[in-house]
Amino acid sequence: MTLDGDKLQVTGVQDDTPAAKAGIQADDRIVKIDGQTLEGLSLNDAVGLLKNSENDTVTLSIEREGEADLIETEVTKEKLAAIVADGKMLDDKIGYLAISEFTGLTSEQFQKAYQSLQDQGMERLIIDLRGNPGGLVTAVCDTLRQILPEGLIVYTEDKNGKREEYTCDGDTPISIPLVVLVNENTASAAEIFTGAVKDYGIGTIVGTTTFGKGIVQNTFQLSDGSVVKLTIAHYYTPLGNDIHKVGITPDVEVELPDDATSDVQLEKALEVVKGLESAE
């Protein structure tokens, strides 16, 4: 899901899940959760309303294109493996693949979604990292190895200058036009993804400047049971760019206004990807 103003936009629905059974569709916009509006909430807080309800069901008020009135639907909560990478085919043989976070599940889910889109005849691809807060360095590197050419993915340096490199063997470089969608909430590992795509020139970055978290942090448990999070290194893009507190500026800048009636960033991404030349 992505946060669009005060609404949660559904980017995709997996078959045979509670959402699918409740009739929720891709591009639906959730405007209320159990009667509570999402005004003023962050993406994490809004998603938290869905996850943290103590009830066995959650009632959603949904806005759907072509429907004059809100749709009320009740979703039964079930424990499922988190969907962090999911894709669908758009018109003109354009694939759309959204990655919400980089976890231990991301690489495998990306591979399955990417392969499914290829099997359906995908000729161009949009990867949506908007609202992706990051996650594991290993997870984003495993994901990038599926599309990058041979070379450096990212490297880290600690305060003593000790350098650690993550590389790609380049066995399956992407050869179709690619656009990566980002916004101000694209952070950390998602910026590693964005930076690698931009530095290698294998895709066009569309959206707004990313968050700017270019540090690696670890958590350490103290003897009293409390936990402290410490910065242990900075990371750098393949070309040596330090994006901490700076972010990554997109190649094509486009804002998503709070009062937008459509996803103008995705519309621009579609326009851009259609104009790109294939490397094949």
Task: Describe the structure in brief.
This protein has 280 residues and is of the alpha+beta class.
Report on the architecture of this protein.
The chain has about 280 residues and is of the alpha+beta class. The chain has two domains: about 1-75, PDZ domain (Pdz3 Domain), CATH 2.30.42; about 85-275, 2-enoyl-CoA Hydratase, Chain A, domain 1, CATH 3.90.226.10. Helices cover about 20% and strands about 30% of the residues. The protein has helices spanning about 20, 45-50, 105-120, 135-145, 190-200, 265-275; strands at about 1-5, 5-10, 30-35, 35, 55-65, 70-75, 85-90, 95-100, 125-130, 150-155, 165-170, 180, 205, 215-220, 225-235, 250-255. Strands 1, 2, 3, 4, 5 and 6 form a six-stranded antiparallel beta sheet that branches. A six-stranded mixed beta sheet has the order 7-8-9-12-13-16, with helices on both faces. Strands 11-10-15-14 form a four-stranded antiparallel beta sheet. Helix 3 runs parallel beside helix 4 and helix 4 (about 135-145) runs parallel beside helix 5. The model has no long low-confidence stretch (mean pLDDT about 90).
Question: What topology emerges from the helices and strands here?
Answer:
Blueprint: E1 2-4, E2 7-9, H1 18-21, E3 29-33, E4 36-37, H2 43-52, E5 57-63, E6 71-76, E7 85-89, E8 94-99, H3 106-119, E9 124-128, H4 137-144, E10 151-157, E11 163-168, E12 178-182, H5 189-200, E13 204-207, E14 215-221, E15 227-236, E16 252-253, H6 264-274
Parallel strand pairs: 8-9, 9-12, 12-13, 13-16
Antiparallel strand pairs: 1-2, 2-3, 3-4, 3-5, 5-6, 7-8, 10-11, 10-15, 14-15
Helix pairs in contact: 3-4, 4-5
